[in-house]
Amino acid sequence: MTIYADHPTDPYVEAIELRMARQRLRFCFENDILFRVDDAERVMQAAYDAMTRSGNPLDAPGERLYLLSFEGLQSYVKVGRVEKRIFPERLKEYEHQAELNTVVIFDGWVSKALPSTRLWETRACDALAAVPGVQRTHKEYFSGITFEDALAIVQRERTL
Fold this sequence. Notes:
The strands form 2 sheets. Strands 5-3-4-7-6 form a 5-stranded antiparallel beta sheet, sandwiched between helices. Strands 1-2 form a two-stranded antiparallel ribbon. The longest helix has 20 residues, at about 10-30. The relative contact order is 0.14. It starts with a strand and ends with a helix. Helix 1 (about 10-30) crosses helix 2 (about 35-55) and helix 4 packs across helix 5 (about 145-155). A hairpin with a 2-residue loop joins strand 1 (about 1-5) and strand 2. By secondary structure, it is an alpha+beta fold. It has helices at about 10-30, 35-55, 85-100, 120-130, 145-155, and strands at about 1-5, 5-10, 65-70, 75-80, 105-110, 135-140, 140-145.
């Protein structure tokens, strides 16, 4: 991220600012106060950047499995797969839903494109639902688990 195209910012400073933005957002959610839009934008941009680095180009053909972390008045993770749709379009839908539900996409991961991710998604969702303390709030939505723990489970359940 750069402030001006000809003035790149220091990655160390960026990491600190991202951590501070996440802390401010969590504080706002915990205390039921309005959060700064620029904090939400910074955190969602970092999640998008992480997804871009985790797999091949987001608009490449093939199926992908993805994991998104939402934090706000409700905090949850979502496991999903994209077939026959371009992932950036789906991500925009989730950003819009997040705004409506007063949550922010805090983190994300997307797999490399594969011929099929259906079995991987099923196994990952079943494994997440089996974790003590995790609540399956809908088919692919889970609360009571951190993004990092959910990602470890999703990656462990990968099928070849």
